[in-house]
Amino acid sequence: MALQLIKSSTQNIGVRMRSITKLSLVVAALVLTGTTLQAQTNNASITATATVQTPINVVGAQQLSFGNVFPGVNKTVVAMDLANAGRFDISGQASTQVTLSFTLPATLGSGGNTMPIVSYAGVHAQNSTQTGGIGFPPSVGVSPSLNASGQLWVWIGAQVQPATNQAAGVYTGSIVMTVVY
Amino acid sequence: MMRTLAIAVTLALGTASLAAQGVMVAPHAVFIDHRLRSGSVLLYNPGTEPVEVAISTIFGYPTTDSTGRIMLDTLRRDSTVSALGWIQAFPRRLTVGPRERQTVRLLARPPAGLPDGEYWLRLVIAAQAGRVPITGVADTTAIQVGLTLEVRTIIGVNYRKGPVSTGVTLSQVTAQIVGDSLITRSKLERRGNAAFIGMIRETLVDSTGAVHAQRVGDSVVTTFASPIGVYIAMQPRLASAIPQPGLPRGRYWLRYEVVAEREDLDPMVVLKAPAVRDSVRLVVP
Predict the structure, then answer these.
(1) B2-161, which class in CATH?
(2) Was domain B166-284 assigned CATH 2.60.40.2060?
(3) Chain A neighbours among B 27-66 (CB < 8 Å)?
(4) Residue A11 above 70 pLDDT?
(5) ipTM over 0.90
């Protein structure tokens, strides 16, 4: 028994699968919209069509890492710091413009103690090396476009300001990125 | 349908990133037919940690600000085209385990006598991965800093009842070269009773008719294409780059067209509408 795809569908699947391979992600809805079974001497065929749905994938890919923090010594991680800046990765339909907004904590907390976190800065780029990257203030938001492969990278940097008498503890907070697709 | 979708997701596991944390959302736009009154969204966690997901709904539709930046207008909650009051998502909270998938169902209970047309809301998918590793060296400072990353993905939900139609008008097309970028603006106004879902295509040609490439990220294209959804009206600003060494002096034309085509959506949900086109002249001194 042979499985034959309608010619036009085959082309569509091919094009879309290629783009999704580039995205390294895929959700494909296979819908058998019609089947034709024919009794033949040596083989039979069925007709199948497929609809491919491009997903959107937004992930927190890399933490905003401050490394060692000492009392009374401000510590800054700039958004251009590929190794330590917080990074979000977005994947979706090629060249789609998305709206990004951020909820940024003003302080990090540890029990009843707080530590200021200020001077947020962001960079978005259509590649993972920040070539041609564009800086933006995360507090305002930005509306970049995904690249021709449907990908976008966003980095966030900030500064923590531990006081000279900063109490010991684990200070935590949340950075929220909202993507309107 | 969902079963086959799930099978496809399983097939996709090999290419999904395992390092990042978040959920994949598909489809990225939901269209609900009044005859079915339900829809669904699939969430897939490609990561290695469970992801807590909260689902909510808001009213909103894309528009543009004064700079042409696309934004979500969420102010007119009492709009007659709002479906916020009668479409609900279930479940509202869920945990998606590593490499697992979950389905969020959308159920509509439209009011009696709802006029034909299209109604909108936005689905908010808030995903919080496990707490990120704490940084810092405890034995020297005893101060450790950690930040939790959370992402909220907002996608459109369009509910269609009865005959729906769409179209778009195009006016005020402008184009200019700024540095190494081609910047365009236009005014798009929707026609009919449903959102116009389509693409903007831009092609740059010189006085001989030869097409000049544009750069989008690391790719060079002969026609720049950007998906667009015109719900009421907007004046989008689009930017593409001119590959080095740039454009020689001369006169150019930007061919600008808006078409009701989307390869990322099921053709069944993309309403047909006539394409609209315009051209504007560019001079590189």
Answers:
(1) mainly beta
(2) yes
(3) 27-29, 42, 44, 46-47, 62
(4) no
(5) no
